[in-house]
Amino acid sequence: MHNRIIEKTFHLPVGEDALFVKLLLHSTPEAAETQPTWVFLHEALGSVGQWKSFPYELCRATGLDGIVYDRVGHGRSSPMRRPRDSGFYREEAELYLRGLLKELNVRRPLLFGHSDGATLALTYASAFPDEVEGVVSEAAHVVIEDITVDGIREAQALYGTTDLRDKLSRYHAEKTDAVFSAWADSWLDPALADWDMLGDLRGIRCPVLVVQGSEDQYGSRRQVDLIVEHAGGPAEILWLEGVGHVPHLQARQRIIDETTRWSAAQRG
Fold first, then answer.
1. pLDDT tens figures, 228-262
2. Inside any domain, residue 178
3. Is residue 48 part of a domain?
4. Nearest CA among 264, 265, 237, 268 for reference residue 61
5. CA angle 184, 78, 189 (to 5 degrees)
6. Going along the chain, which residue ranges are E strands?
7. Which tens digit of pLDDT belongs to each residue from 29-43?
8. Best CA proximity match to 252, nearest among 53, 69, 67
9. What is the CA radius of gyration of the chain?
């Protein structure tokens, strides 16, 4: 059993914005100097709170420190300044994620990204191939599929007719409508219908664990296969039968066990 974890929360200035950050720190200070650090990148409608206890549990299981943060425009971070376009992943990677890692002196990040956050993690690993220890890519999108568009349209209908907006507002407060619109409008924009990041994947050099559930309503097995085919580094697949879009909550212990095994193997 690893030492207990201390949690610290604060706002971190990055550029002209402020990111809400939660640190998960083991009581052994030398760990940050000698071990990788988990960095959790949430989905397009996500926030620190929506990870639930998963980051804590994974950090405890692996013995590694962790960073969980609200991406700009989400949760308790600064609001979005402008509409998203096809270049926002690279901008977020190069400005916000890299800025956060530099401010916190994280030299060996292990990126755990979910959905939109997994796409961001892959983008960052491609842009800075010598600075990333590894990527857990959970339910990433590297091309736009019909299943993705259909799932978002269904979510739009639910947003207007169910309590989905109220549930999201618990985490995003006055930013809720902007968060939802940024996600739905950008993915449904006809100008982005042919978007893909396959070229970017070739720049990745670190190991990648590609996680996806067979019942994911936003992406098919094609996403997984394309990542493995195009990634420039070693890629391993964790395919989960009967699991939907949020494996770290829907198959929590399996994800913790498999990710702990995978990360230990990368560290030798």
1. 999 999 999 999 999 999 999 999 999 999 999 99
2. no
3. yes
4. 264
5. 20
6. 5-14, 17-26, 37-41, 65-69, 109-114, 134-138, 208-213, 235-240
7. 655 567 899 999 999
8. 53
9. 17
The answer to the question of residue 161 being in a domain is: no
Boundaries of domain holding 82: 5-142+197-266
* Number of neighbours of residue 177 by Cβ within 10 angstroms: 13
Supply the CATH number for residue 57's domain: 3.40.50.1820
Whole-number Å distance between alpha carbons of 75 and 177: 12
Say if strands 37-41 and 17-26 run parallel, antiparallel, or are unpaired: unpaired
Instruction: Give the tokens for residue 165.
Output: 């907006």
Q: Which residue has the tokens 């907006």?
A: 165
Q: What is the DSSP letter of 163?
A: S
Name residue 115's amino acid: S
Q: How far apart are CA 124 and CA 102, in angstroms?
A: 14
Angle formed by the axes of helices 252-266 and 54-62, nearest 10°:
40
Q: Is residue 12 part of a domain?
A: yes
